[in-house]
Amino acid sequence: MSDKIKVTIDGIPVEVEPRTSILNAARQIGGDIVPPAMCYYSKLEGSGGKCRTCLVKVSKGSEKDPRPMPKLVASCRTTVMDGMEVQNITSPEVIEARKGVVEMLLINHPLDCPICDQAGECHLQDLSYEHGAATTRYEFDRRTFDRVDIGDKIQLHMNRCILCYRCVFTADQITNNRVHGVLGRGDHAEISTYIEKAIDNDFSGNVIDVCPVGALTDKTFRFKNRVWFTKPVEAHRDCPTCSGKVTLWYKGEEVLRVTARKDVYGEVEDFICNTCRFDKKSTNDWVIEGPRQVSRQSVINANHYDTLQPLPVIKKNPELMQANKEQFERATKF
Amino acid sequence: MLRVEEVQSVEFSSALISKFDEIVSRYPEGRSKSALLPILHEVQAVYGWLSSAAMDKVAEYLNIQPIEVYEVATFYTMFFLKPQGKYVLEVCRTGPCCLVGAEKIMDYIGQKLGVKEGEVTADGLFSYRGVECLAACGYAPVLQIGPEYTFYENLTPESVDQLIENLKNK
Amino acid sequence: MGRKLLLEHINVPGINTFQVYKEKGGYRAVEKALKTMSSDDVVEEVKKSGLRGRGGAGFPTGMKWSFLAKPEGVPRYLVCNADESEPGTFKDRYLMTHIPHALIEGMIVGSYALGANTSYIYVRGEMMPQIRILEKAIAEAKAAGYLGKNILGSGYDLEIYVQPGGGAYICGEETALLESLEGKRGNPRIKPPFPAIAGLYGCPTVVNNVESIAATVPIVNEGGEEYAKIGIGRSTGTKLISASGNINKPGVYEIELGLSVEDFIYSDEYCGGIANGKRLKAVVAGGSSVPILPANLILNLANGDKRLMSYESLSEGGFATGTMLGSGGFVVLDEDQCIVRNTWNFSRFYHHESCGQCSPCREGTGWMEKVLHRLEYGHGKMSDIDLLVDVSKKIEGNTICPLGDAAAWPVASAIRHFRDEFEWHVKEPKLALERNYGLAHYADPIKIAEEV
After folding, report:
1. Which class is A5-99 in CATH?
2. Across the interface, do B67 and A196 touch by the CB < 8 Å criterion?
3. Fewest CB atoms less than 10 Å from the CB: which of A87, B144, C268, C284?
């Protein structure tokens, strides 16, 4: 098509439709030049711009107006212009700013990953691992809230919330009436229903899937297992309410949890209904399609299936050979 | 978080409702949500604070979800979500006022009323709190009292005494 | 005596009424604009005047007006930003209290220029008395035929409404103000789109400060070129300065831009010198958001020349040795004031006022406040000082709206210019609780750099 727009991200050119955001242009290229996104969610209109992890540098505005943009911009909410040049991981300024954002996101976030159900599929964990510093400079008490059950299926653990607003957009756009929102302001802002109230409608469970951290978790799965000990399997059913396309998370023969299918950026492919999510936890309810492909880097892949492959070893390195032997023995013991 | 039992029902007077109607008429068709802040001010002026029942009623009037009202009411600092004293002394505590003794005035008011910031005096008449810049730095220290937000400038311990005395006798 | 354009008749009894205001030449601009000028003519005059936004950013008002999109069949709006909340600034309150009709007249002229048939004045909720004053002024103007349908037989219709805020500094940011006006939380919008394209209710909108709007009245009356003759360089016209702090005569002053800072502080016409015979230590020249400067740098430029009250002169030297005119909130600190405490106070303000939408500002403002509190109360560490600088850098420029910058600048500048005082708080924590650091060397003549 002739009206495509050419943009270069970290030196890699790509042609995209007009009005594409920088972030989505980067996603079309793929790989490590894709900025991380904690609040943007392509399926939720109006999302993005808030977390500031996707900041990039626009070193050339466009072919027509080559001036660079004066500040770093949120790539999720900035549209590409023809001839635009963007720097993400090639800009030290961006790396530094992103490190700052990660630090900010963590100063009030509890270090409770060992007891958090989200661990292993937490975007904040990934983000801190990839972009954060090993230590914190914050020496004050973290802000705390009480845990709240919003309905019998969803638990709100506000301490962990990073105020991405995704669940608010989800409730606005996917469900027919929103009963929760962001209350208060500044660092006291919180997700709440204000008056004790259950969030109860057919699609409310989707707030769990869109939550990038462990702030909204599935009570039917709570403390049942670590995600990396469960096996994701794709399945579907003929559901009158939603597409019925899900991922089942098995431990042995048992379905511990049902989620929507998530893509490489952690976004759901289709929102699913609460019946599929919370009430259909038996293999009989589903038509099994096969194991879900999980990125090799993901911790979820670490303990999967029985074909544990020892790492390839350079034969000349005795230390590595020893390590490999130990790992192999450990693995075969189980 | 509020428990549901605490919520009591509220009926707005017809005078208040017609005030609401006038406010809504200021905005284009379909934009009545714009009336939310002015209406909340009106409600607070009548009841002294915003109970969740009152906010639900406002939501009903504007045909919006109750959570939209809660979101707004909790964002803005002028809205009280708990009952207050009849007179809330709101003392500016920001930089320029502090340069000329706002902190001392705050302490003095606390002593005088015998309550801590945010508490209500036993007779239910007074509470006080520090608020951020009231845009009257040239007349500092200042305080204001709702719902008319009458202004008291160039405060001294003596003028505070006088003010509290006047309010008691009102 | 400098020329007074806005406050010329401020001392006339009854100037707050339509009757007296009109007798003193009020509403001439409306007559002139509606009867003899096209809307584009008015925009052109404002452009020629060189008027720059009086709310703080200093963006040329005429240019802002000319950016307004004008699609067929879509209403346009003029919204007046009267959410005056910047610590140190109280000029708009003064203007609205004493000469409300100056604002109403400006609103009519501005709305006509922009083709708006409904305009809103968003006044911070705390200014309830001013809201009542404006509502009365609007009613008077309407009764006299200056508002409503077919104003002065020109065929132009206009309604002006006053909207109260709810107590949020952030609503002074134009898109947060529009959100608030739509009955929502005051979360700034992510730009683009800018209000000129999609503002109030998604329609093209111009948001202007009270003083900017009022200044269009003398511009229309006297012509843009005449207005531009006042002032200095690109700082044209007169500016209301809110003077507060440790001075003999705090208050609102209308100055011709280009007056020297020294004259402003020490002359009897304006601040009348430092109160109680004390010496000047520091000045925050444009509202709490702008960098604080020590006495020597506020009075003089780095090259030794006198610093002037103008957009350019105040920002001369960048943030290394300069500051900004901002909103004209001129806060004077005498030798008895503690910079650390003042910085902590401002920092608490920004922490309190952060909307919480984007992470650097939400988390960073609280962090800075806590560290500054620790320094002020004698528990600080030497490393805290650099930590503050680093945190402020992590906030600055990385947020959705300028509140992040506004929170970062006072902290960064206080440490830049008063580092000794911060260090003293760490080294002598007990002493710092008992007394203040004092004037130290902050008023010493500047060592003029010898480089050419």
Report:
1. alpha beta
2. no
3. C268
